[in-house]
Specification:
Blueprint (H helix, E strand, L loop, with lengths): L3 H4 L9 E4 L15 H4 L3 H10 L3 E5 L19 H12 L4 E6 L5 E7 L15 E4 L2 E4 L2 H8 L21 H15 L9 H7 L3 E2 L2 E2 L1 H7 L2 H7 L5 E5 L10 E5 L3 H12 L7 E6 L2 E6 L3 H14 L8 E5 L3 E7 L21 H9 L9 H11 L14 E7 L5 H12 L9 H11 L8 H9 L3 E4 L3 E4 L1 H4 L3 H4 L5 H11 L6 H7 L6 H11 L4 E4 L6 E4 L4
Helix pairs in contact: 11-13, 13-15, 15-16
């Protein structure tokens, strides 16, 4: 903790510190000022500016002129914890606050501000700020562009001093050989001497072995010695809301042995139980989590984590959800809105190259596509990155099968098509979004294809709806209680609630007489539809709410 006497001797510019008297009513987020320049002179404004300047300290309760006399402040008194939480909620950075007291009891609040993430500028009210004298000004284009141009150095390509071939796991090396052979069918890789193999993969140079070699192939005790933060921790909870874990396993393994061990641990009956779904005429037993999706999630975290930040990869798994988080935030240029559309470069590029050559991933950057495609095809919710911020990426995958009908439809579609004719991730997200009425997830480039194949149809009210082939997989149709075309029409008539007979008459007015429509609908009552009310007040809905 800094001493007040030492703080009093610091210079604002040279020592990356800012002093404010802030005796009473110092603004947190602009206060009552209407002038833009004055609004910036608040706690959040200074935090943004300091973070953009690679960190510093904001001191409240001391005069800004030297020597910095202690005058005391009541800002956030008895609410320091709430202050830190609110700053994180607004800016996604974690500050550390300290309270100091002078001999006469005057309180000083010191806010320690970390640096912004690499490649990202923080903003206050939409503006990236920096300090200039007594004011806070907007960065000019050159300053802002220089930040956006920043990249994390490839830590995995750095030389790991002291690492030798004897420090590498023979089992991991053999696993790597076999995987590369299976991917490339080059028999030479099975017999080539280890030094040459490492050199060919650029895991070793004339200066020594790289950190990529350590992470991929190093013995566990050697990894702990050189890179103690290279852990994957798996915590199992009986319920995702349970505060404490029921089981915990820490993996400090070379990736070429560890990835299988992690999956085998997760794939236990207790952790990965079967889900039973009605897929008439069968009851299907579906694992809560599938291997390809979970492996992709873990490999993505390993490739994109920031080793410099020193945090382990954390996996929390329960019957409801699988959640994996890694330090470092999204790579440069990636955010929640474009995670699928931007071709990102992993932080550990050398690591990713070898993983790709070994076939653990199809190609760098494709893992997100695979996870989205798998989750949608399995009838699950889409992967969720909303818990991510500038300092960590958090991915949540839910186990529940929310739409068995979509699962059966897409599974049959996948099995009936050649590889070159398969739907891509954007097609699947578009289908998912149409079903769930989320216009922001509809990709226009997919619409033409899906319309042309009859997978979706135009609709006067909803713009796009699912076609008959989707409804053929509904249990009502499977049990021959109605046909797909009728069910599709009923579904979109009743989607926003029960309807009277007039809605059905309107739907079929150019195809059936009123009497035919009444007969058609009444035949479905008791099996597909239920009705309530009398006379003109009669309304219809799906049995069991559809």
């Amino acid at each position: 903790m800094p001493e007040l006497s030492k703080l009093a001797l610091l210079r604002e510019r040279e020592d990356h510190i800012e002093f404010k008297e802030a005796k009473h009513n110092y603004p947190f987020a602009g206060g009552s000022h209407s002038d833009v320049k004055e609004r910036r002179k608040c706690v959040l404004g200074y935090i943004v500016a300091f973070a953009n300047e690679r960190g510093g300290r904001l001191v409240l309760g001391m005069a800004d002129k030297m020597p910095h006399e202690v005058v005391g402040t009541d800002f956030a008194k008895d609410k320091v914890g709430q202050l830190e939480d609110e700053i994180y909620r607004r800016l996604y950075i974690r500050v550390h606050c300290e309270e100091l007291y002078s001999d006469n009891g005057n309180r000083v609040l010191v806010i320690n501000i970390p640096s912004r993430p690499i490649g990202k500028a923080l903003r206050f009210e939409g503006v990236p700020l920096m300090r200039v004298g007594e004011s806070l000004r907007e960065m000019d284009d050159q300053e802002y562009f220089s930040i956006l141009q920043e990249q994390d150095p490839d830590f995995s390509a750095r030389i790991c001093n002291g690492l030798t071939i004897e420090d590498l796991s023979k089992e991991a090396i053999e696993n790597m050989r076999n995987l590369i052979y299976a991917k490339r069918h080059n028999a030479e890789v099975l017999t080539i001497p280890v030094p040459q193999l490492l050199s060919d993969l650029e895991l070793s140079t004339e200066n020594g072995l790289t950190y990529a070699a350590l992470i991929l192939l190093g013995k566990s005790d050697i990894i702990k010695k050189h890179l103690p933060q290279n852990n994957v921790i798996v915590e199992y909870r009986i319920s995702e809301n349970q505060p404490r874990y029921s089981a915990r396993q820490e993996f400090c393994e070379p990736l070429f042995t560890g990835i299988s061990k992690i999956w085998n641990y997760i794939n236990q009956d207790a952790i990965n139980p079967l889900i039973h779904i009605d897929a008439f005429p069968q009851i299907l037993d579906i694992p809560s989590y599938t291997e390809e999706t979970i492996r992709e999630a873990i490999l993505n975290s390993i490739q994109h984590r920031s080793f410099q930040m020193g945090a382990d990869i954390m996996i929390k798994v329960s019957p409801e959800s699988f959640e994996v988080s890694n330090s470092g935030g999204f790579p440069y240029g990636v955010n929640l809105g474009n995670v699928l559309t931007v071709n990102s470069s992993p932080r550990s590029r050398k690591l990713a190259e070898v993983i790709e050559k070994a076939g653990l991933i199809e190609r760098s950057g494709q893992g997100v596509d695979i996870m989205y495609s798998n989750c949608i095809t399995e009838g699950r919710p889409m992967p969720d990155y909303s818990g991510s911020d500038d300092f960590q990426v958090k991915l949540r995958i839910e186990s529940k099968i929310e739409n068995p009908q979509l699962r059966k439809f897409l599974t049959n579609l996948r099995e009936s098509r050649k590889p070159e004719d398969q739907l891509n991730a954007f097609d699947l997200i578009t289908i998912y979004s149409i079903i769930n009425r989320n216009s922001s997830g509809i990709y226009e480039r997919s619409i033409k294809r899906l319309l042309g194949e009859g997978i979706i149809l135009r609709h006067p009210k909803y713009e796009y709806v699912m076609g008959n082939s989707y409804f053929e997989q509904n249990l009502f149709v499977q049990k021959r209680l109605t046909d797909a075309d009728t069910l599709r029409r009923l579904y979109y008539i009743l989607e926003d609630g029960p309807k009277s007979m007039s809605a059905f008459i309107t739907e079929w007015e150019n195809e059936l007489t009123i009497k035919q429509v009444r007969t058609k609908i009444e035949k479905l009552v008791g099996s597909v539809l239920s009705k309530s009310g009398k006379g003109r007040g009669t309304i219809y809905k799906f049995v069991n709410n559809g």
